[in-house]
Amino acid sequence: MSARPLRIAALASGRGSNLSALIAARDAGELAAEFVLVGSDKAAAGALDIAAAAGIPTLSLNPRDFPTRRDFDLELFRRVEASGADLLVLAGFMRIVDADAIAPWAGRAINVHPSLLPKYRGLHTHRRCLEAGDAEHGASVHFVTAELDGGPVIAQARIAVQPDDTEESLAQRLLREEHRLLPATVAAIASGRLTWRDAPFLDGEALREPLILATSGQLQLRHV
Ligand code: GRF
Fold this sequence. Notes:
It contains 6 helices and 12 strands. It is α/β, with parallel strands linked by helices. It has a single domain, classed as Rossmann fold (3-Layer(aba) Sandwich), CATH 3.40.50.170. Strands 3-2-1-4-5-6-7-11-12 form a 9-stranded mixed sheet, with helices on one face. A 3-stranded antiparallel sheet has the order 8-9-10. A hairpin with a 3-residue loop joins strand 8 (194-196) and strand 9. The chain is globular, with a radius of gyration of 17 Å. Bound molecules: 5-O-phosphono-beta-D-ribofuranosylamine. 5-O-phosphono-beta-D-ribofuranosylamine is lined by residues 12, 14-18, 91-92, 112-114, 175, 178.
């Protein structure tokens, strides 16, 4: 374990259920973390209310108050840096981030995405999975790079697609897995097992394929 809890900042644009799952894991003693900031591009984001109720400092910045997207991103990420965060979690942050804003966060920022990356980057992942007739769907946590949903994948949760699944039923079932996957991944970072040395490493070994979320809630290598 590291000497002090991992300091986490999170960015979210919406309801914040993944943020809730992280806070719940911290409260359950499963995640040695301190939340230093929750920021949003949407003043009405549920995530801000969840953070405030948990006593976490919040930040709401309106992109329309900035001359360009880049100015917004640079200011937002300056504020995240100023929070003293060790790790930035994008938990439903629905914006493409400027490359110069994200560059200093290489290896220190992760995102949760509702698909088995590299499949279905971007939006409407559940619909695209159904339209493709996939037997399996899933969620991924990956390190963030300037490429949308394109950074190295750390861990994935998989679910079977049922014949009567709709976009909504699939999204709902997958969300429950996201709520286990994200805290488990952050816990692996907080404990120092998962590190970044220009690529993801687990227990000092290069991580060659995503970890799998087992039914037990543990993250496992596929071949063990
Ligand atoms: C999740 O499905 C996440 O994977 C995606 O956006 C959604 C956010 O949900 N990036 P919530 O705000 O955490 O409830």
